[in-house]
Amino acid sequence: MANDLVLYTEDLIENPSPRVPVVLCLDTSGSMNGDPIRELAQGVAQFYASVFDDEIARYSAEIGIVTFGNAGVQRAADFGPVEQRPNVTLGAGGATPMGEAVCEALELLDERKRQYQEAGVDYYQPWLVLMTDGAPTDDIAAAVHRVGELVRRKKLSVFPIGIGAGADMGTLQQFSPGRTPLRLQGLAFGKFFEWLSASVQRVSASTPGEDVPLDVDGIKGWGSI
Amino acid sequence: MSHEALQSATLSRWLGVAASARGRGHVSKEQPCQDASAAVLSEGLSVVITSDGAGSARLSDQGAEIAVRLTADLLSRSKPWDDLEALKSSILNGCRTALEMRAGQIGAPAAELAATLSFVAIGGAWCVVGNLGDGLVAGFRNGSPSVLTALAKGEFANETVFLTSRGARARMELTRYPSDAFEAFAIMTDGAAESLYQRRSNTVAPAVGRMLHWLDENSPDVVEKALVDSALPMLLARTRDDCSVGLLRRVSLQREQLATRSREFQQRFLGIGNALGLRNRMAVLEHHLRGASMDEVIEATGLSTRTVRRHREALSTYLPEV
Fold first, then answer.
1. pTM to 2 decimals?
2. Do residue B160 and residue A2 have CB atoms under 8 angstroms apart?
3. CB burial class (10 A; 0-12, 13-18, 19+) of residue B230?
């Protein structure tokens, strides 16, 4: 009956949730050996768990991981639903091919965006989190140019994070024209990923058209300029 | 027209309704509904409009209200819409001026009143479909829907274009169709589109056709109540955003079918506001459909010449042969 003045669930459409793609570009070079790589791995695991625990972010956030150092540049985790938590093992070793890794992270993002577009899935501005405890050992010019262009066109948000006193903050600044890089306090990976998870949750829960400002106060819990 | 033809003649008119509801995201933040909508049904003009205030703009609920109210007025004054570019200018300039004036009164930038705009207007020989931003308009022909303008988003989920945006003129879609090109239209804001529009296939949900059929047998007041009490809550449960829906349908009935409808339906269908007027208009219609002349109608009904003429003129909107 068309005129019973009620709608039925089967007459509605289920569109997929808009996605928040986050790519973690992580330094796993030899200098990260020991506590830093252990704490980083725990932080990443906590990030997955924390996003999964949020009923909205669970279906919105997608996390991809690119590592640079141990075994060169690696796609440690491809994008996918957070509920399929991949088993990410991080080991430290080798040099710091940051430029190549950032380009790989952008490729990973591009591939995912193409998949979203083909499937009719809406998505928010992607995030690139770049974490390093040192300086690049390869040419970063192309990566810096690509990232700068995307940031300028508001196609990418970059979060550059230095780990420890040896992190080259000048290099990180090149990757972040609009945002000052932050230095992690000690090995506060847990607090950083907690903050990152809360930020992803806020974007996931926003209404379309809404600006979601960063939780600047929350940064004080784990970072400093 | 022969007596038999008159007896079987179909009365036809556009009936419409629009409603908005506040989304869970705005309820939890104690923010107002930033959507606005309106249905305007008068002799010679039928309009449904929705507007979605920008989530990031502090006063966009006011912007959406202004956009809806002003666009209805501008469409009415711009008929017969022979020049689409002039109509676009009239709507964009009119809305922007009103938004800037309101912004000036409250000491805020006009961008704080940013809102989208979607509408369908039918008058005379034309219907005009307009869209700026992430609203959606669908038209129905022989029962089949087609998406006429769909969700003009930016690349990202939270990006679109507003009346106050630079480049609004270039991105505003305005299309004119013959008034008989479609038998129904549905418009919606992006919150409602979450459940009523499939992005992947660019199709609207069966629920849209179902809601449009409600107008065949129920007065717009009853359909509006059903939207507010039943349909919109279902949509709100599936999004955090505000939801607005506008429906416009050409309802065609024979005299006998009209007689079986509620008095409220008959009043809205025949465009008459009270019971006495309805009785007189139905009587004039009845006699006309029997082939009575003007004098015969006057004699049979006991109404004045002026009154009969007024009713016949109004009826000519729905039944061209009157």
1. 0.85
2. no
3. middle
